[in-house]
Amino acid sequence: MKDLIVFGAGGHAKVVIDIVEKQGSYRIIGILDDDERLWQKLVFGYQVLGGRDHRVSSDCEIIVALGSNQARLEVAREYRSRGVPLASAVHPSVQLGRGAVLGSGTVMMALSAVNSDSLIGDDVIINTAATVDHDCTVGDGVHIAPGAHLCGGVVVEKGALIGAGSTVLPNMKIGQYAVVGGGACVASHVPAKATVVGVPARPFDK
After folding, report:
1. CA angle, corner 15, sides to 10 and 17, nearest 5?
2. CA-CA distance, 139 to 136, in Å (whole number)?
3. Looking at the chain, which terminus has fewer C-beta neighbours within 10 angstroms, N or C?
4. Which residues face 107 on adjacent strands?
5. What is the pLDDT of residues 3-40, one digit of tens each?
6. Distance, CA of 42 to CA of 160 (rounded, Å)
7. Tens digit of pLDDT for each residue in 123-164?
8. How far apart are CA 52 and CA 38, in angstroms?
């Protein structure tokens, strides 16, 4: 069993810890977080050892358990540059179709599914009961929130957020760092960094 450090000590990290424990592939040896107020505290019985400056041994892997796409990508990139392997966490209830590929550092939560020949990048969150249908491509650092659904052939580019309970119809493209609001139904392509809401989804007028 490999040693694992969890980076992040918030609510998202609690879910990741639970998944790792259920997986049974890693032994969690501690938690890291850049918030000094959390140092030495316990999360589910695991001590917060320090922040990014804490040395990670060469025989240990890390999983970045941060909900923010940008922060998760940044921290993961830093650890990869140090040569630290990024672990993935997949809940036992997950369904993976034939030909589905998951990148490193990716988390799949309870009751989620990725169907045949879909490609999931690094450091992705596929949250509780979210689904990715056949032949989708999900870029690095994407978050598919609880209960969200990608129909077949959807492309979601780096860092985008697919909000809770939303649906992206077949063959749509969601640009980098775009945001699909909760409950939206996407029936047309979404440009990079745009925010869309509603049914059908339209640009959000701030």
Report:
1. 90
2. 10
3. C
4. 89, 125
5. 999 999 999 999 999 999 999 999 999 999 999 999 99
6. 31
7. 999 999 999 999 999 999 999 999 999 999 999 999 999 999
8. 13
